[in-house]
Amino acid sequence: MAFMRLGSKSEAFHREGQTWLCTTGLVSDVTIEVGDMKFHLHKFPLLSRSGLLEKLIEESSPDDGSVCVLSLDEIPGGGKTFELVTKFCYGVKIELTAFNVVSLRCAAEYLEMNGNYGEGNLVGMTETFLNEVFGNWTDSIKALQTCEEVIDYAEDLHIISRCVDSLAIKACADSSLFNWPVGGGKNVTSERNTDDESHLWNGISASGKMLQPTGEDWWFDDASFLTLPLFKRLITAIEGRGMKLENIAMAVMYYTRKHVPLMNRQVTMDEQVIETPTPSEAEQKAALEEIVGLLPSKKGVNPTKFLLRLLQTAMVLHASQSSRENLERRIGNQLDQAALVDLLIPNMGYSETLYDVECVLRMIEQFVSSSEQAGIVPSPCIIEEGHLVKDGSDLLTPTTLVATLVDGYLAEVAPDVNLKLAKFEAIAAAIPDYARPLDDGVYHAIDVYLKAHPWITDSEREHICRLMNCQKLSLEASTHAAQNERLPLRVIVQVLFFEQLRLRTSISGWFFVSENLDNTENPNGGNGGLLKPRGETVRERVSELEKECMHMKQDLQKLVRSKRSWKNFTRKLNFKKKSECCKPKDQATPAI
């Protein structure tokens, strides 16, 4: 730690309550009031060092020779700093430290204690020491913290900008190449008799104690002790010097968890809760709104989990609408990186739903909009079950992830009896059709909704089922849907039809393969002894498919017997005529 002792005389003052008395033996001829404190001093030591005091003493000295009384309520640093100034004027030893040099420098400027009033005056002394402070990370942090007490004067003297620049240079450099001490923020709190902090970030022990900071995050903890305005200036300076945006985002996250402790109520057991004195909700709200604007704007730099947690906290604190919209937009742009559990945001508004579905819908719409603006809109195509089309599969990945996420979200919120059908449909329809390779997820969500809302009308059931494409259901989902009594009969018929169509296609494909094998590998006729096992395998598979088709026919017949309206639906869909085309070449399937 940098320090400097000035002066050589022994202690020449003593304090009585709020009064400071000089012990030189001479009668005091000037009294200076600084707030509640009074200093009984002598004119000559003061006016010989200070231009301001010289002028004030000259203007205020009474003609009768009585004690001159001055008021210096506006002196930077108050009575504590003026005490050090007074000692300096009397030649008493004072110690310059990173804690007092800023206020002393500002007070010296205010009192005009420059070279015109003696060589080695306080302005020059404090400037020299400040330059030493700026060469040390820990002392620079301490000095910057004290600028808050004399913010206007420190700004005018460019102390804040010089201090911030020195910190930014060090934060962007490799600390292992220099012998810079770290952990200055902790030293500040210990020297000011505050409680030690317990942190969890990179470099933590199993007991939760902070180890020596390492890597690129070594400066996060020190910076988190700064007030928000100073922290913003430091982050801006660091970003201007080219630090990776990921590191800046991590620093802002660290700061947020410390100064917006309401976020920590949502932290899981394996995450850190940073213990600090709890600020009021109004203070947390103001801090959160500032922090939102401080986060890097580049997509994907800020973890989506953190943004969602910050959004939920903003709702609890009733942060400004612009802050919430900013967070929703950021989250929507990278919604493919979100986890389902983080989307289950409790409803803080006047809606009766358990979760804030309106907020999630806006984020989904933002994702789709940003994807379309970026040109990530593949042409519609039919996707075979079990795999994606190779061409454009990379482009499909983000939208497919979001589609899966949304389907899972719908299944989670569907049991809410207060969730309106129109809102469910709006969320499901917000995802474009090409984003879902299979519709199993949306089918499951629809089924959960129908089960939780048995009172909806038949027309509403028909309407909600239009959200899924029966042709894009997997075999497992189709089997379930065919036996699902909650679905309208028209949907069940569609499911069975497309399943039969799929079976017909599979059977035709196997016959095609079998004929090609016979023609290619046995061109001269013969008995094909070597190919017989392959042919038998093909025929066995065809037989299995035919059995599956027969079972589906039997299920369909059960539905015919149980639902009187069956004939009307089959005539309307002309299903019997279409089903006849599903018969294999060598065996006719019984008509329905």
From TrEMBL:
One of the GO biological process terms? protein ubiquitination
Annotated family: Belongs to the NPH3 family.
Name all BTB domain ranges.
28-98
Organism of provenance: Arabis alpina
Does the keyword section mention Repeat? Answer: no
Q: Which InterPro entries match?
A: BTB/POZ_dom, NPH3/RPT2-like, NPH3_dom, SKP1/BTB/POZ_sf
Question: Mind telling me which SMART domains this protein's record contains?
Answer: BTB
Query: Where does this protein act, in terms of pathway?
Result: Protein modification; protein ubiquitination
Q: What is this protein called?
A: BTB domain-containing protein
Query: Domain NPH3 spans what residues?
Result: 217-502
Q: Recall the taxonomic lineage recorded for the source organism.
A: Eukaryota, Viridiplantae, Streptophyta, Embryophyta, Tracheophyta
Q: Which PROSITE patterns match?
A: BTB, NPH3
Any Pfam family hit:
BTB
Matching entries from SUPFAM superfamilies are given as: POZ domain (SSF54695)
> What keywords is this UniProt entry annotated with?
Ubl conjugation pathway
Q: Which PANTHER family does the annotation name?
A: OS12G0117600 PROTEIN (PTHR32370)
